[in-house]
Amino acid sequence: MKIFREDKSELEFTTIFEDANNASIFKHFKGKIYKIVTIAKDSENLQEMVVYQGQYEDNPCWIREKEDFFGLLDKEKYPNIDQQYRFEKIQ
């Protein structure tokens, strides 16, 4: 699967549903690791959402707006973080 980020960069990733053994792994800027389960649509407004699973403790699943998941990190709010994006692909 491919997306274009707000800075026009292209990102290719794989979800659990596409390839359970090789789903893409992302690191959140606060340090935890997540695997993308799938891209889903909100039933109310059809907005695309990322379903992702924590690779820690009890492996919780979360959802976040696609634009927010793949978006740039707010450097005004987090000036001391080196990571460019909220979630960065590491595998």
Written account of the structure:
The strands form 2 sheets. The protein has a 5-stranded antiparallel sheet. The chain has a two-stranded antiparallel ribbon with strand order 1-2. It contains 1 helix and 7 strands, in the order E-E-E-E-E-E-H-E. The two termini are 14 Å apart. The model has no long low-confidence stretch (mean pLDDT 94). The radius of gyration is 13 Å and the shape is globular. A hairpin with a 4-residue loop joins strand 3 and strand 4. The chain has 91 residues and is mainly beta. The longest helix has 4 residues, at 66-69. The protein has a single domain, classed as SH3 type barrels.
Topology readout:
Blueprint (H helix, E strand, L loop, with lengths): L1 E3 L5 E3 L12 E4 L4 E9 L6 E7 L6 E5 H4 L17 E3 L2
Q: Record the strand order, biggest sheet.
A: 6-5-4-3-7
**Low-pLDDT runs:** none
Q: Tell me the helix content.
A: under 10%
Compute the average pLDDT.
94
Could you tell me the CATH topology label. Answer: SH3 type barrels
Shape estimate = globular
Kindly provide the radius of gyration, computed on alpha-carbon positions and rounded to a whole number of angstroms.
13 Å
CATH superfamily: DUF1653-like domain
Instruction: Please indicate the count of domains.
Output: 1
